[in-house]
Amino acid sequence: MDCHEFCDKHLAFVDDTLAGIELVRMQRHIAECDSCAKHDAKIRRALLLFRNLPSIELSADFSQRLEVRLRECHTEQLASTQRNLRFGAFAATLASLVMVGYIATTLYDHANGPRDVLMPPVVATVPESEFTPITTSAPAIVASVSAGLTIWPAALFAEQVPVTFAHSKLELANYTR
Amino acid sequence: MADIVRKQIVAVEGLTVRERLQAMDDSAVVTAFLGGEERAFSELVTRYQTRLLNFVYRTIGDREKAEDLVQEVFIRVYRHLHRFDRSKKFSTWVYTIASNLAKNELRNRSRNPLVLFQTVQKNFQDEDRPLQFEDTTSRPDDMYRKRHLREIVEESVAKLPEHHRNVFILRELEGKSYEEIAEITECNLGTVKSRLNRARNSFAEIIAPYVD
Predict the structure, then answer these.
(1) Under an 8 A CB cutoff, do B54 and A55 touch?
(2) ipTM score assigned to the predicted complex
């Protein structure tokens, strides 16, 4: 055992919590090493002094003062309990009054019998259509298409454009993934 | 066999309530108090008052304040005993309260230098008071040596850092186990061992010149 290990285990050595074999090793080290033996003696002597310090006694009026404070504390606790009980009783009374009122109102309504529900007259209106009907193009516009197509296929093609773009973007995304 | 049991019951019945409480362990006394036996609290006070006073006094170094703090500990115990987890040790709980109060006191002192000054001044005035532990039959020079030594030891303890001192007192004066100290100081076991080792070494270093 070296001095470093001795210092590491010194706490347990002084408290007598080391295993038997370790204890023997520590004792052997003390017998061999003057410096560690001095360190051990110094610690043990200091602890002996501290452990033998005389006990401090309570002053004569300690118990009396404590009793007074405990009595105050007890009274305070009782008052607090009573206050809580009073509040609880008040809350319970209030809740029961509300409940009785509600039951009385319900019973009164029930005793008067069911009445027909009168609803205000409803005026129904036809909702306006969001899409305006496509009117047939004037013959002049049809004539302006150079490819000789009528405006109808062109209009349908134009409707499909956003869908086509969306598809192409989706495909691109798939490729890049 | 039945006779022996009957005799034991008679013996227990013959005891006063106070004697019965004295025979109980802490946990049973706590249960008795929570069951409505007010005298059980006096039993707890009797068991712990001197131990707590010594612990707090050694931690903060002011006797009067230590008494006030011990009173505060008992008031807190009285108020909150119904919340105490009875699966744990009562003594650990009480020492935790005392330790926290002592720590708060030291913290307040460090924030308020005036209080520190007043404490020091009060301690000087205390010098005139005769010490209770001294044997009046012993020789004056022995009495002087004892008083001087006591002062040196107390001063040396006071020089330890607060968290080292706390662990040191709990172990060396109160004889608490490492586990209990860990619970009281809310540290892990390794920290407790390390602090205790350092506290022992520092204390021995401080006091060595006076005792060699």
Answers:
(1) yes
(2) 0.72
